[in-house]
């Protein structure tokens, strides 16, 4: 009986070690440069840069396939941060990708909404809730202001409302600071 328990315990240790080795051996890490670039981008997932979201745009920038001045939601501040990070020259926002606008959030006129769900399907961050043939509403803290919900709405019940920066709406936009010690 004791021998059987010892054999099972030894088997569990060997199996645990093998699984632990596999977890460490095959752990996939992201590119640190892509992660830093992505942290600077506004995470609107709007596609105005020509890429389907902020992460693909960050990957293209890291590979040298995209310019750093194609993100209207990130604006001049975002371009400056990217230029500093990458050691590139600052360029103004590319006009072909849009213009910088103040922070805004979508608002649905619930009296006009017909519940078609087209806006829900278009929202890249799941900030719209509702059901088919029922009125929809915006979860304002989730809304990135990307405007992708506007074109598919057949009754034009969605508008973009500027939000003022308050303690509740302000978000820390800087990536984690690195403390450098004097040499």
TrEMBL record:
GO cellular component assignments: plasma membrane
Residues of the 4Fe-4S ferredoxin-type domain: 104-133, 134-163
Region: Hydrophobic, residue numbers: 1-23
Statement: the UniProt record of this protein carries the keyword Cell membrane: yes
Main location: membrane
Residues holding [4Fe-4S] cluster 2: 113, 116, 119, 153
Gene Ontology biological process terms, A to Z: electron transport chain
InterPro entries: 4Fe-4S_dom, 4Fe4S_Fe-S-bd, 4Fe4S_Fe_S_CS, Elect_transpt_cplx_RnfB/RsxB, RnfB/RsxB_Proteobac, RnfB_subfamily
UniProt enzyme class: translocase
Cofactor: [4Fe-4S] cluster
Task performed by this protein: Part of a membrane-bound complex that couples electron transfer with translocation of ions across the membrane.
Quaternary structure and interacting proteins, as annotated: The complex is composed of six subunits: RnfA, RnfB, RnfC, RnfD, RnfE and RnfG.
This protein's name: Ion-translocating oxidoreductase complex subunit B
Organism: Sulfurisoma sediminicola
């Amino acid at each position: 009986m004791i021998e059987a328990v010892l054999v099972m315990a030894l088997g569990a240790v060997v199996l645990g070690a093998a699984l632990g080795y596999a977890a460490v051996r095959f752990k996939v890490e992201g590119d640190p440069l892509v992660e830093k670039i992505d942290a600077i981008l506004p995470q609107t997932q709007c596609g105005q840069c020509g890429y389907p979201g902020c992460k693909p745009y960050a990957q293209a920038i890291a590979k040298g396939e995209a310019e750093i001045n194609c993100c209207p939601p990130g604006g001049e501040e975002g371009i400056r941060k990217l230029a500093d990070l990458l050691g590139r020259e600052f360029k103004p926002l590319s006009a072909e990708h849009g213009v910088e606008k103040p922070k805004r959030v979508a608002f649905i006129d619930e009296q006009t909404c017909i519940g078609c769900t087209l806006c829900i399907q278009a929202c890249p961050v799941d900030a719209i809730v509702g059901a088919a043939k029922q009125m929809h509403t915006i979860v304002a803290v989730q809304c990135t202001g990307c405007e992708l919900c506007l074109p598919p709405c057949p009754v034009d019940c969605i508008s973009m409302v500027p939000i003022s920066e308050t303690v509740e709406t302000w978000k820390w936009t800087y990536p984690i600071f690195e403390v450098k010690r004097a040499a």
